[in-house]
Here is the input.
Amino acid sequence: MSAHESNYTPTSRVGKWFDERLPVARLMHGQFVDFPTPRNLNYAWTFGGILTFCLVAQIVTGIVLAMHYQPSAEGAFASVDHIRRDVNFGWLIQPMHAVGASMFFIAVYIHIFRGLYYGSYKAPREVLWILGVFILLAMMATAFMGYALPWGQMSFWGVTVITNLFSALDSVWAGLGTGITEWLWGGYAVTGVTLNRFFSLHYLLPFVIFGLVVLHIWALHVAGQNNPTGLDIKSKSDSVPMYPFAVAKDAVGLFAFLIVFAWFVLVMPDYLGHADNFTPANPLVTPPHIVPEWYFLPFYAILRAVPSKLGGVIAMFASVLILVFVPWLDTSRVRSAKYRPYYKIAFWFFVFTCVALGWLGSKPAEQPYVFWSQFFTIAYFAFFLVALPVLGLIETPKQLPRSITESVLGKVGGGGTPLPVGAAAAPEKR
Ligand code: HEM
Here is the structure.
């Protein structure tokens, strides 16, 4: 699986017997017990583990919900109500799944921003990053289809608005967009047929995500983890075994995350949802203000910022797909923003841009919101197409420590000339 050899030694006869036939324990020990982890990882690195927990929690709670849910236009809304009121622990499991989707997105956005800040997408971690982008796309599709399932007003109208976007392709080739839209619907309108196929795909996709996560972690264990300095592990003192060190830190991070998660589930389970979704779907009544879930709002703002329908759809998809090219758009030889003064400013402005777009996405499509959506849409793309390529060429990075160990313990053993600016973190294989 990776360059790291497992030093697993079975302690029992049964363990030895298995090890000679199917060395699963050896593999797990090598990858998750004695795997060398940089000694300086901070709490931003606990989000990979938190995300793994979120995925498993969504699958487990989802399977239980599917035992009681009815994927039909007539039964869906009432079946969710039935789960919350009558099913044993339904009051807990249904909000865990609904709030869990939001928590999953909070975690994945922090995970992505962490990657952008510390340059974790740079060589040799490009494939790991691109797999992450595919996971994000699959998560978005899963969440979108999941939101349709309670068949409330916002479910129905959200599906109607978003699936209708494909009809913009009619302006490319007459009939193409309408054809795709009707194929997605399974008819000439959003109906119970649409709901049923969304349920089927909503059940399937998390397992696709699971497969992608296995590849993601495999790619991570081939390249090894990045760290706050962006330097590679060069000596034994730069790393610690994953267990107990990184595992203990992950456990603390997960525990803190669970407190927030539990607070939402137990104290305000419906806060992150929309009031209109407590009214059953009605194709004859359009809600005054159709908005997606909070985690799609920045993309929704980009969609509406572009005056042409097709242009908006292209900009929205481009805003996610542009992430694929980040490893090649960034020209810097230094990975971590810690040592990149200009990039650090660009990064925080980018975070602000995403939050602003999220807020604007929740506002009606009128002035001054449209103007500001256009402004921040330009700022969003400028981060990728201007800041990433240009800053790497013009900025002078700060002095880097000689090693991960030195960044933690300070200069050890004295002496030694510091490395030339930018040298040590230059990704070796580009
Ligand atoms: C279900 C979603 C995901 C899961 C379960 C997951 C899991 C993990 C885990 C366990 C790690 C190692 C621990 C850590 O560095 O935090 C990791 C690292 C990483 N992930 Fe993800 N991930 C997910 C989504 C994503 C996405 C959407 C991206 C980017 C678009 C991404 C990019 C990365 C990168 C670049 C690393 C290496 C970080 C480093 O070593 O500095 N991941 N992921």
